[in-house]
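User: These chains co-purify. Model them together.
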Amino acid sequence: MGLGKIVKNFKTTGEIKEVTWTAVLTSSPEPGQAGDSFTRADFEKSPSGVAGATPSISSQ
Amino acid sequence: MEVPFAFLADAANYSQSGTINVLGIFNQVSATNFPTVHPSMALVMRLEASPAEYGQTKQLEIRLMDEDGKALGSLSADLEIPPEESGRRVFIDHILNLRMTQFQRPGRYTYAILVGGEPKREVTLDLVQVQEGG
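Assistant: Joint model of the two components:
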């Protein structure tokens, strides 16, 4: 299961500015698949505000 | 939902099999001058949900506080616990790479992890001022 199906409406404030968030559902990982990663910019680009719409492993 | 572990590290990533690789767990940073900027660190944590929480949405917040408890920044998101049928506890491991975090002065800082507004775990970070070359 990708992170975008688990984490939504990602927001940051103040000194937590540049974040890349990666998550894995380890209780039932999909074989051979690493976790999705995304940044705050991915949420801002996504009209739905749903993480993982444009997954990225790069920092802002 | 519980947070059985959380810590700061120099770096962390996932293996292809879903295990976590961690490099350099720490809870202290030294700097000669303040304010100082820590270029990169990883907050690693596990969230664990019971079968009774299958399909629920939880509000997750990471709050950075100074030693007076003043909030300096936060990260929040809605966490949807997947509907499983296994009857087992759900583990969701998180790696948050935090870049260019600024600390105004020496002292103890805390990353508080809250689920549904309730504090579940705290990770402390001591910022220490040292002499040049020390």
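The two ends of chain B are 43 Å apart (CA to CA).
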